Amino acid sequence: MNIRKIIEILGNKKAGFLLTMVMVLSLISGSLVMNMNVDIYPPFFEFDFKYFFYPVQPVHMWFYFLLIVSLAYSINLVFCVIEQFLLVKKIKNIEAKRWASILAHIAVIFALIAHLIEGSTVKSNYVEISKKPVSINGFGSFYAESIQEKFYPDGKLKDVIVNLKGQKADGTEFDKIMSYNNPVTFTAGIRTILIQQITSAGSSIVLKRNSDGKTLPLDYQGQIKTPEGLLRLAGIEKTKSGFWLVYLKHILKNSEEKSIYLTGSEDIKDACSLTQNKDYFLCRHMNIVIKNETYSFFKVIETPVIYALVKYNPGVHFILPAALLMCVSLILQMLSTQKKKPVL
Under the phi-then-psi rule, with left for phi > 0, alpha for psi from -120 to 50, and beta for the rest, what region is 116? Predict the structure, then answer.
């Protein structure tokens, strides 16, 4: 059997059409399986091959079958393109329709390569974006300068506008606007930040200095001067019971750091000051004393917080040439079907 015969067999058009139909059926079955097993396939499920193989499960059989069919389909496409090029060498006057077919096949090959790279190399991080800086290995750090909610007249959420600021790993600073329908992209689309959900969380706290009764606001970018150094905000969490846990860093004058935490709730603030119950956990940790100066928990300020998906996908660069080739193919196909007007 010569090489030409092998190319004709592997690039058989009927086999390619049959494999296309099998792929479509596999995708439909996969969609049904994923919708029926929401506990296994969570919302905003990522196209990551590792998820299907660690561990191997019977429920993923549709995907294993799809991989085998996709491999056979890719081989068929490659040899089909080779066969077309061999025919082009023999034909002197090549029709636009034949070039359209070749370009369409190449475009599909590029799209399959893009999905292969995405599935094998994609990296995703779900992060909480607020005024507190977030760091991503290999990318940099960023935070939300402002988060603005837009509503419809009936009160339903319309969109979220986020002013995202940060610094890349190479030191380059950026300032971009992000919304639900406008994700932020970096490195020509390889790195993308997409909004998934919006909620509210503590973004800053207010302490009360007992010596003069002055209230002192403190956010993640600010600091409060103390008799021994600087007080900075490190974290805010809310427990299931509704109490706040506030993590502070005390930077001493000799550059030594000390971790301090406060517990608080505006509902029990007055009760603690009245009862002076030192054995009560919340009351005991609602105050911090630094060199005879007492700072008390006053309140936590809540602001909107974004839960976003930070996605790394190097295969996205293959999508653009695939789209361009497919557009050129469609144009050539349209030109080849136009009939010449008769000369009067």
Answer: alpha
**What are the structure tokens assigned to 6, written together?**
């092998």
How many residues does the structure list for the chain? 344
Instruction: Decide if 297 contacts 246 (C-beta within 8 A).
Output: yes
Q: What is the pLDDT of residues 257-304, one digit of tens each?
A: 888 888 876 655 554 554 444 444 455 678 888 888 888 888 888 888
Domain boundaries, the chain: 3-122+315-337, 125-198+306-312, 201-304
Residues 68-93: tens digit of each pLDDT: 999 999 999 999 888 888 877 777 66
Consecutive H or E run containing 15: helix 13-36
Q: Is 190 helix (H, G, I), strand (E, B) or coil?
A: coil
CB 233 within 8 A of CB 131: no
Tokens at 190, concatenated:
């390889």
Task: Say how far apart CA 288 and CA 284 lie, in whole Å.
Answer: 9
Q: Cβ neighbours of residue 340 under 8 Å, at least 6 residues apart?
A: none
Residue 235 CB partners (closer than 8 Å, separation 6+): 132, 245, 246, 247
Q: Of 248, 243, 242, nearest to 219 (Cα)?
A: 248
Instruction: Tell if the pTM clears 0.70, that is, is over it.
Output: no
Compute the distance between CA of residue 246 and CA of residue 299 in angstroms, rounded to an integer: 10
Residue range 130-147: average pLDDT?
86
**Integer Cα distance of 304 and 129 in angstroms:** 9
> Which two three-digit tokens encode residue 214?
């002055």
Contact 149, 304 (CB under 8 A): yes
Q: Which of 220, 245, 222 has the alpha carbon at shortest distance from 234?
A: 220
Distance CA 40, CA 61 (A): 14
